[in-house]
Amino acid sequence: MGGQTVELQSQLEYIKYSRDVIHGHSKGVAKIFDLAVSYIFDAEAAALQGKKAAWTFGIWESPLFYACDTIPVSFSELGRLGSIETLSVAEDYYQMPVETCSMIKSTIGEWHLRRSGPIKRILGFSSVCEPYNIAWELMKKAGFEVHSIDIIYRPPTCTTEQYEEIIRFFTEELRQTAQWLAGGVDEERLRFELRRRNGLMRKVRRIMELRLEYPLHIRSLPMTFLIAGLGHYMGKPEEYTEAVDQLLDELENSPRVSAPDESVIPLVWAGGRGQEFGVYKAVDDAGGAVLGWVLPSLYAVDYREDVPPLEAMARYYMEGQSAGAAIYQRRAIEAQIGKTGAKGILLYGYLGCSFAGVDREMFREYFHKRGTPAISLEGSFQVGPPSGQLLTRVKAFIEMLT
Known about the structure:
alpha/beta, 4-stranded parallel β-sheet, two-stranded parallel sheet, about 10% strand, globular
């Protein structure tokens, strides 16, 4: 089931093509894309008008931001704004080696170009990866206010006593983060934000269930924005909620787009979120459909509502696939294979991230031995079309699964 061949050169072109041509039937997809395109610029405009805002990953921590009346501005979204210029800034001005992870270099370059902008605060995560630790220090020297938080690591042999000690430590880290954001947090407001996030995650999980029957109504690219949007609501919680409700209504009550004459090939995407949007188009054009997602964005479990809210946030992170040993991500991949009946796995990472590359090869070998083919992919974080080699490998992999 091939697709139309269209030459697109930038992330914005991919978004417009997906919104207007592929998803012209869906008002919900249009809303998600429109929010995504305006997210960073609208957050900066709000900051200029006096609204509190801070750069952050925008994955699991955003309820705390909203409870502190602060817009979480996801620097993960900077990749599609970047360019070769941002990499040059990182390499030439900050003397970062060429082989450094493209995500780090792109982010640093964008922050450098925005150093005179209205958003001057960065929440850093000091145990995510060593290159980002360097980035936090460089940004301090560039004039940003940086607060670093230690991210917990859950070993595979973690005992109950160790688990609870980690929870206590991480809860205190979150308390200090709230102090940095707003001098503290209203716990009732945070409870509200956790309930809101829980409700939205349930709706997104329902959308993912409905896509098993109607995978062509919402294809791979808008799903990445829908899932990533759970982490920050694109700075506009009410509008993001409206878009989610629109998509859910379309899949439950409106005419859906179905496969015309043959079924798509179900796939699981695991690892980084591909910023080279042509990869998703290549998957769709080859007859595949990403129906399972194992991304840093956590959506598979709810925040607990029976414990204090800061503790609930700590426990939520600890139960996710990103909380330490690779075995937790592997289990998440296995769960998605079981839910979707996936015939293959796309393991994606960014150029220069050697640590994640080791995990991908371990996963590829593990799942191959158990009968599910997997392919390890590396792409760039900054703007631009994917390489021809990357697209060829994706298409050949999906053809092999037919």
